[in-house]
Design a protein that fits this description.
Jelly Rolls, alpha+beta, two-stranded antiparallel ribbon, 9-stranded antiparallel β-sheet
């Protein structure tokens, strides 16, 4: 379930929690972040290839490409047995920015974005069907958890795809990780 927590950037991650999608979307839009719910009705096998995922969502992908002029689209699929899951998680957990805006569509599973905007951190738990668009140069980090299980379509206006500029801040260590955050919601 999509969830938003808004907390002071200098705190321990405790803040207001929202679970109503329309409220979440509106609160994020106030911060310049777009969140949409797409129908993820295309059932794909767990081992679906990136080509199969893109083919299943071709119409939606083409609409976004035409609107934003994306030059690169890929599919990232991470499972607990992925050989680079731990290293990737470590990289994504460091606060960073992108010169490009970041757009992700969750085909399966979930992940937690932390958006450091002004004096607040917006913790956005995204799941199947969620499309999030984070503006360029927004400090953020992402946690997929200790046992990651998600599949996302990623869109880039830059032809090289994902490129990060790390801020050097340790703010991510002040906030609950994916596992702690999701267990607190149960």
């Amino acid at each position: 379930m999509t969830t938003l927590t808004i907390a002071p950037a200098q705190a321990d991650g405790t803040g207001e929690i929202f679970t109503d999608f329309s409220v979440i979307s509106a609160r994020l839009l106030e911060a310049g972040v777009r969140l949409e719910r797409w129908q993820a009705g295309h059932e794909l096998p767990g081992d679906a290839s990136p080509e199969a995922v893109l083919a299943a969502y071709r119409e939606s992908v083409d609409l976004l490409n035409a609107h934003y002029g994306f030059q690169s689209v890929d599919v990232v699929s991470i499972t607990p047995d992925h050989p680079y899951a731990t290293a990737m998680r470590g990289t994504f957990l460091k606060e960073h920015t992108h010169a490009d805006f970041e757009v992700r569509f969750f085909v399966e599973g979930s992940g937690l974005f932390y958006l450091h905007i002004d004096d607040r951190v917006y913790m956005v738990l995204c799941g199947r069907g969620d499309l999030i668009s984070i503006p360029a140069n927004t400090p953020h980090w992402f946690d997929m958890g200790s046992s990651p299980a998600f599949k996302c379509i990623r869109f880039f206006t830059a032809p090289n795809g994902w490129e990060a500029d790390f801020t050097g801040s340790d703010i991510a260590t002040l906030f609950p990780d994916f596992d702690s955050y999701t267990s607190s919601l149960a």
